[in-house]
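Hey team,

Filing this mostly as a record. A colleague (T.K.) asked me to run one chain through the structure pipeline before their review meeting, and I want the input and output archived in the tracker in case anyone asks later how it was produced. No errors, nothing strange. Just documentation.

Input sequence:
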Amino acid sequence: MSAPPPAGPLATRGTLAADLRELGVRPGETLLTHSSLSSLGWVCGGPVAVVRALLDALGPDGTLVVPTHTGDLSDPADWTAPPVPEEWWDTIRAAMPPYDPRTSPSLGVGVIPETVRTWPGALRSAHPQTSFAALGPRAAEVTDGHAADCRLGARSPLGALERMGARVLLLGTGYDTCTSFHLAEYRIPGPLVEVGRPGPDGWETPVEVSVSAERFAELGHAFERDRPVTRGTVGAAVARLFPVADAVAYAERWLPEHRPRSEGSGHPRS
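Output structure:
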């Protein structure tokens, strides 16, 4: 039996770039993009075409930023999808290779960020679990100085993007992927946690601010109701466009009321 024809619509580099411009992506801006390739329809050229379309819309003076997180560089005791046997944990901790911004593949953020990570000229931040990659003239400004004990706070690329006046593009993804909301978690009371990961000198457990995307979809719904968010369609995907700073400021007010996390010791550090 023959395979069914691919689901459309057909999207190309040119049509995606035109859709991004129609949405409001501006030449020369800095754009933090969370993306889903499958949401766009049938893309001629796959993720490479999407990255080229984003760069076309941003122009030579624009900077594209994506999350390139490496959640697999973590404590096997916390793995649930799937879990591994407890008798493996010590061996995994001892054998897990440390983060290398040049070679460690991203995980769980989609194929478009992984394509950006390997793009000629891309720069990547230094945090071993929550790195970001960037392409464009402000890439170093975004990625430099990502502190090893600050996953998603002021000393991460999110802090730099907020200061730079960058915007967020949700390209076929929901607000549960919106990393900008995490920056607000560093500015409200919350617990500190030990985070296991491989380091250059062996297994390490630095203390970090606890972060969670719990209720981010609900937070995003309220944000979109109360603040200006540009909505449109790129390919077959629903797309949203808004400033990083607006998302952070709204989350700072919303989270303490709707998702209090005051347990734990001390105040969050950034």
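Quick notes for T.K.: The first helix runs from residue 13 to 23. The longest strand covers residues 237-243.
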